[in-house]
Design brief:
N-(1-d-carboxylethyl)-l-norvaline Dehydrogenase, domain 2, 3-OHacyl-CoA_DH, 321 residues, NAD, alpha/beta, 6PGD_dom2, globular, eight-stranded mixed sheet, single chain, oxidoreductase activity, acting on the CH-OH group of donors, NAD or NADP as acceptor, 47% helix, Rossmann fold, binds nicotinamide-adenine-dinucleotide
């Protein structure tokens, strides 16, 4: 019973606020404290995670942020979403208009990765594709300040492998694994590579705290802690759907109403992104060699169809864009 209660609580914490919507924050707008040696940060990837990280950095740590994405469209969408979140907080009197304006003004955008060169802390949040992340960390080692921390938001890929791609900068590579939606979820999983220096770890923990987050450590194993527990649950729900054990509505209903999580696993998968879920399952499967992590065929087919969830308007459910 105790174990059951724990599981339910853990899932609730993990899934509590995936209903991102435009909820705004209920937290203080005051600066939480400076981090020694960190005067500017860069975030690479302006998708759902990157935009959230940029926002909390500009808001809670009052840091100037360079938000970088290879796609102009992603940048435009990110800035528009950040504005909506801030407007919501102004309408709820959580921020004044002038505070919201100052936060927005701290975020500048770019499509050029070379613009990380003035940042002291860089957080990569591009899609969960091993080769892409390795390429970016190789580039970061060349163009970032020689003292900058190079953090990844990967959900599952080995931090040690990513650090190796950074060559001589490997000791400055770490994972700060923010949870979705970033402005609301307080936990951040910190994972060190074999190469990570103690100084990199200390700075990363301080930055997470300055961003109003609660860091906790996980080992550099496939999926770390959060996704090693969460993704097999989601994958099993998809296997139940493809096996005809229940409809999508019934699967979501029994888990939502029966385990007191805010949404069922299929809705949750749509919010995370089915491409991201599949990528994580593949890492779990390939890196452990354990068949219990085999991604469901239906998950693969949904991604093949381009139905990757809320971000594209269609996953297990349909969403207005
Ligand atoms: N979605 C989640 O719930 C979640 C939770 C925790 C961690 N993560 C991890 O965070 C990372 C990002 O996930 P996301 O959900 O924000 O993805 P996303 O698809 O919403 O956004 C990724 C962004 O990266 C951009 N991009 C692609 N290639 C690029 C490049 N070469 N240079 C710069 N930008 C590039 C894309 O244009 C896109 O805007 C992944 O590693 C994912 O596993 C995701």
């Amino acid at each position: 019973m105790a174990a059951l209660r724990l599981t339910s609580t853990a899932l609730r914490a993990t899934t509590r606020s995936y209903a991102y919507g435009v909820r705004g924050f209920a937290t203080s707008s005051l600066r939480l404290g400076a981090v020694e040696g960190v005067d500017r940060i860069s975030v690479i990837g302006a998708g759902q995670m990157g935009l959230g990280i940029a926002l909390v950095a500009a808001r809670h740590a009052s840091l100037p942020v360079t938000l970088i994405d290879s796609s102009e469209t992603s940048i435009t969408k990110a800035i528009s979403f950040i504005s909506k979140l801030l407007d919501k907080d102004v309408s709820k009197s959580r921020l004044t208009e002038s505070q919201a304006g100052e936060i927005k003004a701290r975020i500048t955008t770019s499509t050029d990765i070379n613009d990380v060169s003035t940042s002291d802390f860089i957080i990569e949040a591009v899609p969960e594709i091993v080769e892409l992340k390795l390429k970016i960390f190789k580039q970061l080692a060349e163009v970032a300040k020689p003292t900058a921390v190079l953090a990844t938001n990967t959900s599952s890929i080995s931090i040690t492998k990513i650090a190796a791609a950074a060559g001589d900068a490997a000791d400055r590579v770490i994972s700060t694994h923010f949870m979705n939606p970033v402005p609301i979820q307080s936990g951040v999983e910190i994972i060190t590579a074999l190469q990570t220096s103690p100084q990199t770890l200390t700075t990363s923990i301080s930055l997470c705290k300055a961003l109003n987050k609660i860091p906790s450590k996980s080992a550099d194993t496939p999926g770390f802690l959060a996704n090693r527990i969460l993704m097999p649950y989601i994958n099993e729900a998809i296997i139940c759907l493809e096996s005809g054990i229940g409809t999508k509505e019934d699967i979501d209903a029994i888990m939502k109403n029966g385990t007191n999580v805010p949404m069922g696993p299929l809705t949750l998968a749509d919010f995370i992104g089915l491409d991201t879920c599949l990528a994580i399952m593949k890492v779990l499967h390939e890196d452990t060699g354990d068949s219990k992590y085999r991604p469901s065929v239906l998950l693969q087919r949904m991604v093949d169809a381009g139905w990757v969830g809320k971000k594209c308007g269609r996953g297990f459910y349909e969403y207005s864009k």
